[in-house]
Structures are given as C-alpha cells and as structure tokens.
Design a protein that fits this description.
The chain is α/β, with parallel strands linked by helices. It is about 35% helix and about 20% strand. The chain has a six-stranded parallel beta sheet with strand order 2-1-3-4-5-8, sandwiched between helices. The protein has a two-stranded antiparallel sheet with strand order 6-7.
Length: about 270
C-alpha cells in the first residue's frame, strides 16, 4: 500500500533539514545533540527487559532477542579491532534455551569479558551474568534464583516432570561450573520457601550475591571497565589461563558422569 503524503513520517537523523534532524534526536535519544562517536576497542552488549525465545513477545514488552545477540558475539570473536566485551544486564529473565545459548556464547569467547548487573539479573539472566571471565553487581541490584517454569500446555504425565528436572539441571550445572557457588547451596537458595510471596526461591541483593559465591564483586561501571581493561592488558601479555575453553558436560542424560565432578557443599 502506498503511503499518502498526508500521513506523518518518522524524521530521519542526518536529513537535509537541521530542524528535522534535531527532532529525530529528541524523539530517539531525548536530547538535541547526538553523543560524539568515539573509537573504542571495548564493545558493549546490553541484555535488557525479557529474553525472547522462539515465540514473539507482545510489542510493548522490552526484549532482548537471541537472534540479534548471537551474531554480534560471532562478529566480535572474528573482529581484530575489538579487544574485550562488557555485558550490561537489567533483565527479568525469559526463555531458558535462549538465555543459555547466549550464556554459552559469552562463556566460550576467546576475548576477555566482564558482566555488570544493574537493576536486576533475574532467572535465566543469572547464567549470563556468571558466563563472563569476571562479574560485577551494583550495590542495589538484585538477582532472583528460582525453579524453572513452563508456560502454555502442560501434559500431566511423569515425563513432563522428568523433562523439567533435566532443564533445571542444565541451569544449575552451568551456574556451578562458572561461579564459586556450590551445587548444594545453590539448590537450597533455589527451592527456599517463605521469602517470595507467590514463588519459591531467593532474592539476592548486591553483596549477598557475592557472599554466596554467585558474583565476583560489588561494583559499578567504573570498576567493570577498569577490570575489563586489565584483562585485556593481561591477554595481550599472553597471560596463562585467561581463556576457559568449554568442556563437554553431562546433564542427567543417563550417560557416564564427567571425569571432573562438580563441587558439592554440605549444608550445616
């Protein structure tokens, strides 16, 4: 259908008319001057809103689409002009497989990575937060650890609950393998009752996430950028052990257990 001349059109940045360009900047950025374009060897990826899976979410929902993030990570891996990646999270969670896919991509990047949790890194956002070489959480930010849920049609047969257990195991083992928290402690936090009104689980605020071993340090943007720059400097010097290659793991499949067992904690 042809657009009539009477219908309003979105002004474009960099148009012929200066007033039109300023209006576009005001609409998109809330200011009349665009921020200066600076060359940086550090790349920023934001994980915000809800992590969208294989089904489209409502148009008014802020989302992070895995089909947008994964190609970015592949391009970063191949781009010699990028030395490190800063991942900023403020997410309520979302699709499990999409979140784990992003987390695995971050984990297996050969370049230094740092995550910073601002606001919240809830649910499946937690694996992304721990997937980097080093993780930060803001003093007022929170991470919610809770069991996974299914939406849509659920068949009431034992196989459904076995499938849920396998999905749960994937998340737990990823968190344990990429942070300092033990499996027993993580399960205790995940299945805790009495803290959340309409759910099972635990809300970790700032330093609490560091105390349990899930996040490395409390800090903000300044600390995250400084840490990333130090990791980049170490990588350039050829520091040993900076890159953690992905190792195949077994998640309740009935196959032989991994050669290196996961840490276990005994709760007092």
């Amino acid at each position: 259908m042809d657009i009539s001349e009477d219908e309003p059109r979105e002004p474009e940045i960099g148009g012929d008319e200066p007033e039109q360009a300023q209006l576009a900047l005001l609409q998109q950025l809330g200011q009349t001057q665009a921020p200066p374009q600076l060359e940086s060897r550090l790349h920023l990826i934001s994980v915000i809103g809800q992590i969208e899976g294989h089904f489209l979410l409502p148009p008014k929902t802020k989302t992070t689409k895995y089909e947008h993030v994964i190609p970015q990570l592949v391009a970063i891996e191949q781009n010699p002009n990028i030395d490190g990646v800063l991942i900023v999270l403020n997410t309520v969670g979302g699709d499990i497989e999409a979140g784990l896919a992003i987390a695995e991509m971050v984990r297996t990047l050969s370049k230094p990575t740092v995550t910073l949790v601002l606001g919240g890194g809830h649910s499946i956002g937690a694996p992304i937060a721990v997937a980097a070489r080093y993780s930060f959480i803001a003093e007022t930010a929170t991470i919610t650890i809770h069991p996974i849920r299914l939406t849509g049609l659920v068949i009431g047969v034992p196989q459904t609950y076995e499938y849920l257990e396998k999905m749960q195991d994937r998340v737990i083992r990823f968190l344990v393998a990429n942070s300092k928290i033990g499996e027993a402690r993580l399960r205790e936090l995940m299945f805790r009752t009495g803290e959340l009104v309409r759910d099972v689980g635990t809300v970790l605020v700032g330093a609490e996430a560091v105390q349990v071993g899930l996040i490395d340090e409390v800090g903000g943007l300044k600390q995250a950028v400084q840490k990333l720059e130090s990791l980049v400097a170490e990588a350039k010097k050829g520091a040993a052990g900076l890159y953690r290659p992905a190792e195949p793991k077994v998640y309740n499949t009935g196959l032989p257990a991994p050669a290196t067992p996961f840490r276990e904690e005994v709760l007092e």
